[in-house]
Design a protein that fits this description.
Layout lengths: L22 E3 L2 E3 L16 E4 L10 E4 L2 E3 L6 E4 L4 E4 L2 E3 L6 E4 L5 E3 L2 E3 L8 H4 L13 E4 L10 E3 L2 E3 L4 E4 L5 E3 L2
Parallel strand pairs: 1-4, 2-5, 3-6, 4-7, 5-8, 6-9, 7-10, 8-11, 9-12, 10-13, 11-14, 12-15, 13-16
Length: about 180
């Protein structure tokens, strides 16, 4: 997929749970996202799972062995989609975040790589002009698992963050981290 987007249904801020699943496997996505749209309130990430039904073995909500590269926005966003699984995926040159999971319990994020992640200010002249500063309370991270939800059942194992312009891994307790 080059320079486009894939939608299961049109996203909304309403608490609608969509039926069906999205299972990406062995997919390459380049030139993803849209400049200036990196906020959770209007997610235009490379791939966004938004208000999806809980994943199961028969109908998984997953991203496996994929590559996202040369983006203009964060790579993967998972919002209110329980039992999401991400494995073996590489995110290279995303802007303002690699992987962000919010309000998604029982998530599994294992053996992924996020590298060369940039802060939006690195593209400031292209995006906003020199006179407009980017002010934010929270810097983006390659892996941002802080708001994932019920942390007791989440798994984060064997992931790598390298060359980040900001934070490599952000997590606030409750995840089953495995260190080696």
């Amino acid at each position: 997929i080059g320079g486009g987007f894939v939608m299961m249904k049109y996203g909304t801020t309403l608490a609608i749970k969509y039926e069906g699943n999205i299972n990406f496997e062995n997919v390459a996505v380049s030139n993803f996202g849209q400049m200036k749209y990196y906020e959770d309130t209007d997610p235009r990430f490379g791939i966004t799972y938004l208000n999806g039904m809980e994943g199961t073995d028969q109908l998984p909500q997953s991203l496996k062995n994929c590559v996202l590269y040369n983006g203009y926005a964060p790579g993967v966003g998972v919002f209110s989609t329980d039992n999401f699984k991400m494995e073996g995926t590489v995110i290279h040159r995303a802007v303002h975040g690699g992987v962000k999971i919010i309000s998604s319990a029982k998530s599994t994020v294992n053996n992924n790589i996020c590298t060369k992640h940039y802060h939006m200010s690195a593209m400031q002249q292209m995006v906003r002009g020199e006179s407009q500063l980017i002010e934010e309370e929270r810097w983006p991270a390659c892996f941002d698992m802080d708001g994932a939800g019920d942390g007791s059942e989440n798994s984060f194992d064997g992931n790598r963050a390298s060359g980040s312009g900001t934070i490599g891994i952000r997590g606030c307790g409750g995840w089953k981290y495995v260190y080696f």
